[in-house]
Amino acid sequence: MDDLKFGKRNKRGDWAPDAPIETAPLFDFPPRLKAVLHWLPHYFFPWNAIFAASAVAYWAWVVPSVETMQSISIGWAAWLYAVNAACVFLFYGAFELHLYVLRRQQNRFKYNGKFPSEQRSKAFWFESQNIDNMLRTFLSGVTIWTGIEVVMLWAYANGYAPWLSLAENPWTLALVALVVPIIHEFHFFCVHRLIHTPFLYKWVHSVHHNSVNPSPWSSLSMHPVEHLLYFGTAFYHLILPSNPVIMLYQLHFAGFGAIPGHVGFDKVEVTDDKAIDSHAYTHYLHHKYFEVNYGDALIPLDKWFGTFHDGTPEGEARMQERYRKRKERLAARKARLEAKGATQ
């Protein structure tokens, strides 16, 4: 495909889409029914449908019996870890192989024209972004993902979480399943703002931001504290009227759903003339500029809090103006403290 029909490439080889980022019309006021109906298929396909299907498959073929889950044991916990690790390796690895190893679409639709394997940095273990990202994914990410999964399944098996049956509560469960991405977005935004506070950013979130040029394995490359906060989205189902399948969907939305935002390409080509939209540009700009787009634009939280960057020159100008005002506030505060110190 010709990516220049959809965007432009600068002298460094970085590509950017022509169309500005738009937030989902779901929360627009006044409501725009036509826009919502046009957007709705994109809410389900392809990504959310994949993550929901994987949760159903887990429940059918992977998750142990309720009797087994009533007590936590190394056996079934290790089994879940092995399956999670294998699925992550296959799912993440498929994108890595297609886009970064074989480079089947070269740098078409790639936001950052360079590939991580071409750049070594002491910020990473063994000075390799890929090795660092993979080790953090499997040593910490999949481990904590599995730990939370085990705790939640144990809670369901012992009646500590509200378990509604599909036969008796189809509409309630359908509604909860529909809002899984919204729960994730709300949780992700709140946690993301929290770990951008100076102390937590320095000691926790900076690990993830080392991957300025993100690739598939960057998706779950985080500090263990961030993994715990990130996958903590499953704990909402200790309160919500839900069931284990929807809880698994929530976890899979976080675990497998991290891929689209970090794939590094705007479109993933599947044939010579067809491609799947990654919708990754929103989060790519966060990795590039650090203090914009804390959410993924499903809920317009960044618009409401003044941190939205839509990828346009106007968005760039708003960001720079916000930085300028913050710099002035910090300078004024420093001047007041110095003046106060001089009078004492």
TrEMBL record:
Top EC class of this enzyme: oxidoreductase
GO molecular function, one term: oxidoreductase activity
Enzyme Commission no: 1.-.-.-
Membrane-traversing stretches: 43-61, 81-102, 138-157, 169-191
Entry keyword Oxidoreductase: yes
Xref: InterPro entries: Fatty_acid_hydroxylase, Sterol_Desaturase_Related
Protein name: Sterol desaturase family protein
Major place of residence: membrane
The Fatty acid hydroxylase domain, residue ranges: 178-307
PANTHER family cross-referenced by the UniProt entry: STEROL DESATURASE
Subcellular localization: Membrane
